[in-house]
Amino acid sequence: MNSLFIGIISIVGTVTVYLLTWKLHKRIDSPITLPVFMGSIIIIIGLVIFDIPYDTYMIGGEWINQLLGPAVVALAYPLYQQRRLLKQLIYPVLGGTLVGAIVGVFSGMIIAIWTGVEDYIIYSLIPKSVTTPVSMVITDSIGGVMSLAAVFVVIAGIGGAIMSPFIFKLFNIKHVYGRGVGMGSASHAIGTAQAMESSQLEGSVSTIAMVLSAIAVSIIAPMMVFLFM
Quick check: helix, strand or coil at residue 162? Predict the structure, then answer.
């Protein structure tokens, strides 16, 4: 079976699973039915049942992965549409995102140090709250493992998307700007996609927070490693 055929099967299978889980999420609006979460579980189970190596699946999966960059760039459109309103909120958004970036870096690093894991795991965990392309570059620069960092990023994104409704309810966070900043700075593109489903404005704020968080973490992470490791 040649690589082209395997790649086509991987792409068609992934897209089919996503569409099915998306329809399920529309019928059952629950964090557990999020397509990125439910779809990942279904694909993992399928790979295990049919004994398909991850490297084989990624022959086609890598093609989909290449669309991550353009997908992030596409988030700039709603950002542009809300540009006038967002200009008025630049200082609150900057402050909230900076706090979120610092908490994201410190929480991962401190918990990892307390549990006594290896240094390379700590370095891979530090940039968990920024989008995958940025996280992998940061991880490589501070001595972590890029593939491990990608796993932590996905866990942070899915975890934030699933837990956010409960956290918002628990702390009575109703304001669209607060929700947007929280999702963008903690759950990057996955959280931003969910915020976009709530409202375009919340998604736009989340997009700003995601971008600013990536910049902040790229500066904070090396400093934290230098000071504390």
Answer: helix
Give dist(CA 113, CA 76) in Å, integer.
37
The residue whose two tokens read 């940061």 is 138
Instruction: Please say if the pLDDT value at position 189 is more than 70.
Output: yes
CA distances from 17 to 11, 30, 54, 55, 192 (A): 10, 17, 17, 19, 21
Residue 133, amino acid? P
Domain edges within the chain: 3-66, 74-228
227 touches 113 (CB < 8 A): no
Whole-angstrom CA distances from 208 to 36, 48, 73, 83, 216 are: 22, 38, 12, 10, 12
pLDDT band (50, 70, 90) for residue 1? low
Tokens coding 229: 């490791």
- Classify the C-alpha dihedral 80-81-83-89 as positive or negative: negative
Tell me how far apart the 2 most distant CA atoms of the chain are, in Å.
Answer: 57
Distance CA 177, CA 195 (A): 10
Mean pLDDT of 36-48: 89
Long-range CB contacts (within 8 A, 24+) of 108-115: 108/152, 109/224, 109/228, 113/228
| Cut 0.90: pTM above it | no
Sequence-separated (6 or more) residues with CB below 8 Å from residue 42? 17, 21
